[in-house]
Amino acid sequence: MKKIILIVALLMVALLATNPNENDFQRFVENALQDKLDEKALPDNQVSELIEERIGKLAASFAKEIAVRHNYYVFSIYTVSMGGDDFHYLGIAKIFVPLQSTQPGNL
């Protein structure tokens, strides 16, 4: 029984230490958008890479401003309101998981 309590306590401490913050969410949005842009048929050159990077950073800063974080210490729920719809993301262990099938820009 003591081993189980110790394992659960260690797991909780690990989750507490890796609960993603607002900057982590901003990087998630930036990387997800850049990945989506990479999938599109843009020419593979420095100009398109610069455009993709700028669009990713702009969207990420916008998402950081409109996202609301609900901190539950071992995980967080991020809510982004866009166009009358709310999009929810679970942030746990520095990973983000969409909580519904439709997402803005299919992130």
Report what the structure shows.
By secondary structure, the protein is an alpha+beta fold. α2 runs antiparallel to α3. The chain is elongated. The chain has a 4-stranded antiparallel β-sheet. The N and C termini lie far apart (42 Å).
Helix fraction, binned, reads 40-55%
Overall outline: elongated
Overall strand count: 4
Please report which band the strand proportion falls in: under 5%, 5-15%, 15-25%, 25-35%, 35-45% or over 45%: 15-25%
The Cα radius of gyration reads 17 Å
| Overall pLDDT | 86
Main β-sheet: number of strands, strand sense, barrel status?
Answer: 4 strands, antiparallel
Secondary-structure-derived class? alpha+beta
Low-confidence stretches: none
Q: Report, as a whole number of angstroms, the end-to-end distance.
A: 42 Å
- H and E order: HHHEEEE
Number of helices: 3
**Spatial order of the strands in the main sheet?**
1-2-3-4
Descriptive keywords:
single chain, 107 residues, 3 helices
Secondary structure layout plus pairing:
Blueprint lengths: L1 H16 L4 H18 L6 H21 E5 L4 E7 L2 E8 L2 E4 L9
Antiparallel strand pairs: 1-2, 2-3, 3-4
Brief summary of the model shown:
The protein has 3 helices and 4 strands; from the N terminus they run αααββββ. It has helices at 2-17, 22-39, 46-66, and strands at residues 67-71, 76-82, 85-92, 95-98.
